[in-house]
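Re: that backbone. Tokens:
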């Protein structure tokens, strides 16, 4: 390390912030947006799709099982391959992997829209996860396009993109599915194709988005990994083993990232379930439109907050303080569920007190979302070397994909059992997740307050 690298401080003790490469970041975020859109565009119509497939036999009680399987397949299959794609990107470069992933997403969405059997739906959904290793690669590129002076500003944009996709994806799926039925006076009602394939339109629109992202990546995105040409007769360096990233600081960072993702996905699954359940069963009896508007408002405010407020808060409070604060908000959010239920049951309807607590839950949700940006920074900093950044992010993303597939199923099951057995007065599921939150706060204890002396060895960069 040179003297200049060891002394990056300006005379006044303030590091000069490096300008962000906005064009490259825009393309990268455009590519990232493809994942939440493709994973969540099916949510508004997947239950109806399953009901119409022969496998359900017209039995509504079977719909939830098969729909849940279809929804989780994306993350399950992604967990099987994301580490491979991320590690491969360390050797062949980031661009080829991103282009392969976008091609896979485009192909899978077209296939899903044309599927008329449960088998073809499953194959299309698995294809999306198996060919898509982009999330880990995108985080690696984000780490390579930023430095310690602007990483908070750059990483803060990633949760914004996820929140945007979580809003836009279901909107596309809800507005464009069954167009001949929804819009009987439109062009779509006169085209037999849209009657035969009622879910093709939203899938094709998302496929077109992925194709646009592929084109932008191919033409404009610059490679961030220098791939050394193979010299004839030269002995190839051995490929790094996955064991090289299984070191304490990486495992601690990944564990904290996984826990906040697990709690977040569990919360996201509980929210619509709690909001729509009858008041007598511990819910709020909201209709679909109210639930959609509430969750969209949470996502919109959170996205704006991350974009404009995270960086100054990070600089003022420090990385670990922001992360621990974000984790602790789950205690408040889970505690508010039984309190809202109690208030609604006593009033017999959703009154002002319930709406006030719902707003408080939204505020806590916005604060919680900052934890993801902190987790990204910790994972990036924990990589043993620059050449293992992809493998490190791949390990993290594999863990995230696993908890994203497990979290909703577990929380929904616990909610059902709690309501059916009236465990702890209907509060068992919330107590359970509060205990998990306390455990997550304990796991965060070893995280360093500052990244100084924590960032992985970069000797192999030169």
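Recovered sequence:
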């Amino acid at each position: 390390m040179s003297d200049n690298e060891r002394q990056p401080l300006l005379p006044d003790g303030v590091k000069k912030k490096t300008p962000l490469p906005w064009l490259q970041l825009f393309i990268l975020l455009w590519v990232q947006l493809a994942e939440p859109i493709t994973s969540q565009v099916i949510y508004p119509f997947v239950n109806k799709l399953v009901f119409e497939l022969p496998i359900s036999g017209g039995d509504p009680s079977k719909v939830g099982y098969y729909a849940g399987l279809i929804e989780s397949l994306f993350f399950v299959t992604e967990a099987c391959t994301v580490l491979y794609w991320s590690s491969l990107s360390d050797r062949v470069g980031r661009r080829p992997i991103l282009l392969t992933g976008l091609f896979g997403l485009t192909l899978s969405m077209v296939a899903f829209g044309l599927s008329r059997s449960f088998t073809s739906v499953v194959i299309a959904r698995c294809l999306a996860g198996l060919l898509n290793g982009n999330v880990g690669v995108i985080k690696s590129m984000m780490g390579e396009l930023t430095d310690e002076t602007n990483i908070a500003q750059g990483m803060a944009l990633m949760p914004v993109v996820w929140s945007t996709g979580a809003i836009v994806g279901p909107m596309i799926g809800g507005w464009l599915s069954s167009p001949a039925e929804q819009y009987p006076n439109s062009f779509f009602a006169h085209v037999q194709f849209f009657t035969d394939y009622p879910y093709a339109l939203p899938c094709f629109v998302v496929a077109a988005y992925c194709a646009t992202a592929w084109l932008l990546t191919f033409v404009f995105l610059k490679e961030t990994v220098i791939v050394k040409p193979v010299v004839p007769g030269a002995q190839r360096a051995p490929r790094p083993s996955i064991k090289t990233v299984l070191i304490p600081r990486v495992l601690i960072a990944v564990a904290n990232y996984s826990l906040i993702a697990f709690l977040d996905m569990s919360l996201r699954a509980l929210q619509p379930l709690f909001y729509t359940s009858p008041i007598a069963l511990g819910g709020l009896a909201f209709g679909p439109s109210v639930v959609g508007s509430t969750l969209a408002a949470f996502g919109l405010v959170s996205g704006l907050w991350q974009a404009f407020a995270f960086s100054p808060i990070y600089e003022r409070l420090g990385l670990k303080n922001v992360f621990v604060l974000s984790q602790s908000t789950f205690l408040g959010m889970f505690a508010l569920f039984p309190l809202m239920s109690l208030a609604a049951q006593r009033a017999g309807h959703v009154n002002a007190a319930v709406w006030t607590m719902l707003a408080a839950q939204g505020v806590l949700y916005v604060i919680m979302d900052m934890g993801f940006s902190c987790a990204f920074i910790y994972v990036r900093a924990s990589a043993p070397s620059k050449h293992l950044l992809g493998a490190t992010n791949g390990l993290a993303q594999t863990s995230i994909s696993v908890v994203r597939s497990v979290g909703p199923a577990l929380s929904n099951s616990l909610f059902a059992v709690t309501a059916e057995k009236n465990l702890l007065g209907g509060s068992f599921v919330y107590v359970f997740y509060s205990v998990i939150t306390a455990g997550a706060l304990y796991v965060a204890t070893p995280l360093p307050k500052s990244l100084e002396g924590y960032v992985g060895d970069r000797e192999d960069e030169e």
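Residues 20-219 form a domain with the Growth Hormone; Chain: A; fold (CATH 1.20.1250.20). The two ends are 10 Å apart (CA to CA).
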